[in-house]
Automatic annotation (TrEMBL):
CDD domains: cupin_XRE_C (cd02209), HTH_XRE (cd00093)
Upper taxonomic lineage: Bacteria, Pseudomonadati, Pseudomonadota, Alphaproteobacteria, Rhodospirillales
Single Gene Ontology MF annotation: DNA binding
PANTHER family according to UniProt: BLR4304 PROTEIN, HTH-TYPE TRANSCRIPTIONAL REGULATOR
Recorded GO CC terms: cytosol
Keywords of this entry: DNA-binding
Pfam families reported in the protein's UniProt record: Cupin_2, HTH_3
Domain HTH cro/C1-type span(s) in chain numbering: 18-72
Alphabetical list of InterPro entries matching this protein: Cro/C1-type_HTH, Cupin_2, Lambda_DNA-bd_dom_sf, RmlC-like_jellyroll, RmlC_Cupin_sf, TransReg_Diox_bact_type
Gene3D superfamilies: Jelly Rolls (2.60.120.10), lambda repressor-like DNA-binding domains (1.10.260.40)
DNA-binding listed as a keyword: yes
Record's protein name: Helix-turn-helix domain-containing protein
Amino acid sequence: MQDHDELANTTSRLGVCLKAARRARGLTLKQVAERTGMALSTLSKVENGQMSLTYDKLLQLTAGLKIEIAELFEPAGSRPERREVITARRSISRAGQGHLVDTTFYSYRYQCTDLVGKQMVPILAEIRARTLEEFGALLRHAGEEYFYVTSGRVAVHTEFYEPAVLEVGDGIYLDSSMGHAYLNAGEEPARAICVCTSEEPDLYQKLRSISEAETRSVDA
């Protein structure tokens, strides 16, 4: 439990921080009371270090002011500024370029393969398999992905949803760890742009290893 001096210091710090947060937003105590639904007298006592707040009241206060709870215990000026990190990475993908993985049932052309440690992997896909038997086991890997159909029709199968058919211009965003498969659902070639993303730095290598497990790999 907090001793008397520690509790007093916490109460005083809360008051100072609340006043700083309020003034930074050009608000009066009355406006804060209106935004948060808290009594004006309560807010005045808090600012003057005469009382503290329960956790529920702190959440009510931060929700009304749309601020992080940390701002009520650490003045904004005392927090180190976050410096934006600019990597200046860039890669141009020319037509026909990329790492091609070609199979009987699909072809994937991985784009911008000169960049290592990507958190996003863009793929140009052509879907040939028309049944789950042809496709094989559902795919599963870390992260999430977006699949956008550019030609033909594609049936999307997942382990938790009924199949969905995507037409040209349709897209689907899904959890990649959920079993999934893309099948050609039309007479014409089915092509799409797929973007996979994950916090894992070696996502590209893992995706390649999955698709190359039973295929031949061709560098283009």
